[in-house]
Amino acid sequence: MKITIIGPGAMGCLLASFLSKSREEIWLLDKNAERALKIRDQGIKIEGISGNWQAKVNVTAKAEEIGPQDLIIIAVKSYDTKGALKDIKAMLGESTLVLSLQNGLGNTEIISEVAGQERTLGGATNHGATLLAAGSIRHAGRGETVFGRMDGKITAELRYIRELFNKAGLETRITKDIKALLWSKLIINVGINALTAITRLNNGRLIEFDGSRKILEEAVNEAIKVAKKKRIRLIYDDPLSKVEAVCEATAANVSSMLQDVLKQRRTEIDFINGAVVRHAQGLGIPTPVNAVLTNLVKAIESSYALQV
Ligand code: PAF
Q: How many CA atoms lie within 13 A of 301 on its CB side?
């Protein structure tokens, strides 16, 4: 199988390193040619819970160099999904599957516009990783990776991908209900990401203080109400307890949104808390806490140069 991971961020590097342990042809596509050369020459350096190791990966900035793929994994920020898909025409063959392992809602819809519903896979991973420098990451938390087709069918290709991921050391399963999966993961990000970005706290600290704990609960409860109204089956019996459990399990993590804010970059707020506010419109469910979190993060990301 020929597999390309798009995006050399923390998650893209983590996936490329683990998948490189398989016998398949693995590529990492990085739109920045200079950085691509650097990562190709030095390999990807990993430290953290999987030990200190290095992975040699094929890296390029040119999709034409890679050619048609069996599987393309999108690991760019959600606001870059559209742009990434424009650049990969040369990698899309007749049966190429395109898998989103990104945070937030809306990515599978964007991918299916280009690749078609039949070839779009949605997924989520609970691994935590921090980008230390180009091609250098800290593996901060281990968790399950779950993916599936939009129509819920479990095909031979999906089983093959699951085995490949598992053999490479990424614990993986297939779901028949990616809506349930994506909304359940969304709810975790709704509770953690914006609040950590605003307070600049590690994930675990959010539940140690009454103020942040309360806001986390309210943001999550709003999202649960929206999901229920949309008849989305959440995969956790008690989603709020799950968010708190993730805070504990990833206590030392710097969430991806806090990493963005610390690097003064754009965040995925529109695809997380902003998505809850958008989906609530017309359903008669008020989402004031998610609206405030969205606007605060938007204010932060548009005023980096002016902050005291
Ligand atoms: O975006 C993130 O950082 C992660 O999805 C999570 C689960 C919040 C852990 O940090």
A: 20
Structural domain including 59 reads 2-176
User: Which residue's alpha carbon is at the smallest distance from atom 6 of ligand 1?
Assistant: 255
Helix axes 178-199, 273-280, angle to 10 degrees: 120
Our mutation pick for probing the ligand 1 site, out of 105, 183, 246, 254, counting the most ligand atoms within 8 A of Cβ, is: 246
Residue-wise pLDDT tens for the chain (308 aa)?
Answer: 999 999 999 999 999 999 999 999 999 999 999 999 999 999 999 999 999 999 999 999 999 999 999 999 999 999 999 999 987 889 999 999 999 999 999 999 999 999 999 999 999 998 989 999 999 999 988 889 999 999 999 999 999 999 999 999 999 999 999 999 999 999 999 999 999 999 999 999 999 999 999 999 999 999 999 999 999 999 999 999 999 999 998 888 899 999 999 999 999 999 999 999 999 999 999 999 999 999 999 999 999 999 99
For residue 192, give the ligand 1 atom closest to its CA: 8
Q: What is the pTM of this model?
A: 0.94
Instruction: Name the domain count of the chain.
Output: 2
Out of 102, 192, 205, 242, give the residue to mutate to test ligand 1, the one with the largest number of ligand atoms within 8 Å of its CB: 192
Q: Which of 176, 191, 210 is the last residue of a domain?
A: 176
CATH number of the domain that residue 97 is part of: 3.40.50.720
What CATH number is associated with residue 251? 1.10.1040.10
Do residues 8 and 104 both lie within one domain? yes
Neighbours of 43 (CB within 10 A): 17
